[in-house]
Design a protein that fits this description.
With 115 residues, this protein is mostly beta strands. The protein is built from one helix and five strands. The chain has a five-stranded antiparallel beta sheet with strand order 4-3-2-1-5, with no helix packed on it.
Length: 115
């Protein structure tokens, strides 16, 4: 038996995070520990990529803070992620939308999927 599969199965965490793809606008509720206090901080932005498989999956969220683009990488199996809310489903044709980094203003908008 493959040793890596055994290790991955043991390390796998049961998280019920929502399924999302690149182009979706999400809000990540992230636990911040400062000294002996704990609070939940919300990070809202567009998913520009999902990378990896199993418990090593990470996703990158990009938001605009003023005129500056800020990206943050979250591991999907992190115990600090409280929950993930999907605000909008984006209609994109790529799995990694790095072209969004170069765009500003109206051209940086992503069309919303209609259900």
């Amino acid at each position: 038996m493959d040793l890596m599969k055994v290790v991955n199965k043991e390390l796998a965490t049961d998280n019920d995070l929502s399924e999302f793809i690149a182009g979706d606008t999400i809000t990540v509720h992230y636990k911040i520990i400062e000294g002996n206090k704990e609070r939940i901080q919300q990070y809202k932005g567009v998913v520009i990529q999902k990378k990896g498989s199993g418990h090593t999956t990470t996703f990158t969220v990009r938001k605009m803070s003023g005129n500056i683009g800020v990206e943050r990488i979250f591991p999907i199996a992190s115990p600090f992620i409280d929950k993930i809310e999907i605000n909008k489903r984006g209609k994109v044709r790529r799995a990694k939308i790095f072209y969004l980094r170069k765009l500003t203003g109206k051209s940086a908008r992503i069309k919303e999927k209609k259900f």
